[in-house]
């Protein structure tokens, strides 16, 4: 798996729906953030799909071949309005064997769009970037 840096920030802009964490681990939220990011990625020219729940949070699948590319979104530190996002790529074994491995470039490209979208919001504060 190839992963981007972790982007942490605070914002009250992403509402938590009642029962949202039933699809993830208890106390893990981020569906509204993931849905907003999916729209932002589409607006920036990426082929983002429907948001899906995982144990660790909510994921935005982004069309990419020959590997799977995602943006993960989750609440942080069990504090309302604290969020974490990162991009990651899985798979692509045949691409790594027979072609150039583009996972690093694809993760960097998606992460750049995610970071730009988040930092452009006026209701986002305390943005921190942690290395992968």
Describe this structure in words.
The protein is of the alpha+beta class and 132 residues long. It has one domain (2-127): 2-Layer Sandwich (TATA-Binding Protein). It is 28% helix and 31% strand. It has three helices and seven strands, in the order E-E-H-E-E-E-E-H-H-E. The protein has helices at 31-43, 93-98, 103-120, and strands at 2-3, 6-10, 52-54, 57-62, 67-75, 82-91, 125-130. Strands 1, 2, 3, 4, 5, 6 and 7 form a seven-stranded antiparallel beta sheet that branches. Strand 5 (67-75) and strand 6 (82-91) form a beta hairpin. The protein is globular, with a radius of gyration of 14 Å. The chain starts with a strand and ends with a strand.
How would a crystallographer describe the biggest sheet? 7 strands, antiparallel
| Proportion in β-strands | 25-35%
- Average pLDDT reading: 92
Can you tell me the CATH architecture? 2-Layer Sandwich
CATH class group: Alpha Beta
Query: What is the general shape?
Result: globular
Estimate percent helicity. Answer: 25-40%
Report the count of strand segments: 7
Rg measurement, Å: 14 Å
Oligomer: single chain
- Low-pLDDT segments, ≥5 res: none
């Amino acid at each position: 798996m190839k992963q981007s840096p972790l982007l942490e920030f605070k914002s009250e802009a992403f509402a938590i729906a009642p029962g949202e964490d039933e699809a993830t681990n208890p106390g893990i939220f981020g569906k509204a953030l993931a849905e907003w990011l999916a729209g932002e990625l589409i607006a920036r020219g990426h082929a983002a799909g429907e948001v899906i729940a995982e144990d660790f949070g909510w994921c935005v699948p982004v069309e990419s071949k020959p590997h799977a590319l995602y943006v993960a979104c989750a609440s942080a530190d069990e504090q309302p309005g604290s969020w974490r996002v990162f991009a990651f790529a899985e798979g692509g074994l045949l691409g790594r064997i027979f072609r150039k491995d583009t996972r690093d470039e694809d993760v960097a490209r998606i992460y750049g769009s995610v970071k730009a979208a988040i930092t452009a919001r006026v209701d986002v504060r305390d943005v921190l970037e942690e290395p992968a």
